[in-house]
Amino acid sequence: MAPKAQNSMISYHSIRYQKPETSKLEMASLNRVSLFCMVVALLIPFPSTNYCVAKLEEKKKHAALFIFGDSLFDAGNNVFINGPTADFWPYGETFFKHPTGRCCDGRLVPDFIAEYAKLELIKPYLQPGFEDYTDGVNFASAGAGVLPETHPGTINLKLQLSYFEEVEKKLKRQLGNAEAKKLVARAVYLFSIGGNDYMAVTLNQTTPLTSFYKKKYMTMVLANFTTVIKMGGRKFGFQNLGPIGCMPATKASLGITTDCAHEPLVIAKMHNIALPKLLQKIQRQLPGFKYALYDYYTTLAERTLYSTKFGFKVGKSACCGSGAYNGELTCGGKNGTVKYKLCSNPSEYVWFDAAHPTQSANRQLSKLFWSGFPNITGPYNLKKLFHMV
Asked: What is the pTM for the complete model shown?
């Protein structure tokens, strides 16, 4: 993935160049680049001095990526707990060629964000032996909610925060207090969570929820979310709630024959109207707080309902599953059955399984999160946050 070196002479001292005050954090980040440049110097006759020096400076300024959320962002944490996971075929078939625990045929939105930010794939916190946190950590857990009572046994948002606090302590031991503080301050914090909280109340009701109850419940979810946001970081990326009423799983569960289920969409819209107001309030309270709020709802709904306009053939049914819309969560023989359907080309679909987009959809969505205009991602986009010193 590293760019090719260009033509010109380079000296051993240029490869080893560093400022005297280079910190432990910088050294940890620079080691891989320095080694790469030294190899290039041996293998390629005319590598560029400017290229390697520029790469060293770039790594010194890099921002780590810390990821919090549910199955849309889980890179494999649930493989290591007794929770819902996707560690079986055909999950992972498109990119990794084997299941990784991601609820997708390939990469998730955070995987693409890491690529755009010139970081390695961010590893799950619970992966055994993982202790180098200089590029970031993924704490997300499939099935998790903001509220602890949503799907017990998963890593709820509060528990994810406690894991982050453990990472902070380890960074201080590894890098020293000052450098750990710099890493935390420079990092970008990515969030996508809340869908499971709302699905838990909308799918389990025999009668429609009252407006009073929906507002009270939403207020409780956002209040718990607020306490987690107020951490040591200052640069945040938020994905708003997706069109949960349009998921194949929702339509199949509720027996919906229309494009989307009304009740889940109503509560999702309520959340998405309240969220920017909450973030603006936090911005007034926390000096230096900057954020990117991505309209995941609209962009995914558009691709679901008008798939051909965005290069997909199928938007309303899933690639993998069974039943109406392939909306039953049976992909790969899940839930004790081996009877499921699998499409031949996931890239033609918006949804891979009944509740999760394909890698092709995630690629499109991640680009909008990364560099979308303010009407899609604002007041900043992730690209601008990563480039802030």
From this structure: 0.85
Bridge partner list, 239:
294
DSSP 312-379: -SEEEEESEEBSGGG-BS-TTTGGG----EE-S-GGGEEESSSSSB-HHHHHHHHHHHHH--TTTEEE
Give every CB contact of residue 307 below 8 A, 6+ residues apart in sequence.
313, 314, 315, 316, 350
What single-letter DSSP state applies at residue 123?
P
Whole-angstrom distance, CA of residue 356 vs CA of residue 68: 17
In this structure, the dihedral spanned by the alpha carbons of residues 249, 252, 255 and 257, taken in order and rounded to 10 degrees, is 100
Residue-wise pLDDT tens digits, 182-216:
999 999 999 999 999 999 998 877 677 899 999 99
- What backbone phi and psi angles, to 5 degrees, belong to 156? -65, 170
Q: What's the rounded Cα separation, in Å, for the pair 255 and 258?
A: 9
**Cα distance between residue 102 and residue 110, in whole Å:** 11
Catalytic residue of the set 29, 71, 307, 322 = 71
State the catalytic residue, choosing from 62, 151, 271, 356.
Answer: 356
Q: Which residues contact 270 (CB under 8 A, 6 or more apart)?
A: 214, 215, 218
Catalytic residue among 135, 192, 353, 366: 353
Q: How far apart are CA 296 and CA 377, in angstroms?
A: 9
> Are residues 81 and 124 in contact, defined by beta-carbon separation less than 8 angstroms?
no
Q: How far apart are CA 218 and CA 264, in angstroms?
A: 12
Evaluate whether 299 touches 365 at the Cβ level (below 8 Å).
yes
- Catalytic annotation on 71? yes
Pairing of strands 65-69, 136-138: parallel
By 3-state DSSP, what share of the chain in percent is helix, strand and coil, each rounded to 5? Answer: 45, 10, 40
Region of residue 147 (phi > 0: left; psi between -120 and 50: alpha; otherwise: beta)? beta
Active site residue 347: no
DSSP state at residue 61: T
Dig out the tokens for 238 from the structure.
Answer: 């938020």
298 contacts 305 by C-beta, under 8 angstroms: no
Q: Catalytic site residue 353?
A: yes
Q: How many residues does the chain have?
A: 389
CA atoms within 13 A on the CB side of 134: 20
pLDDT in tens, 50-82: 545 444 455 556 899 999 999 999 999 999 998
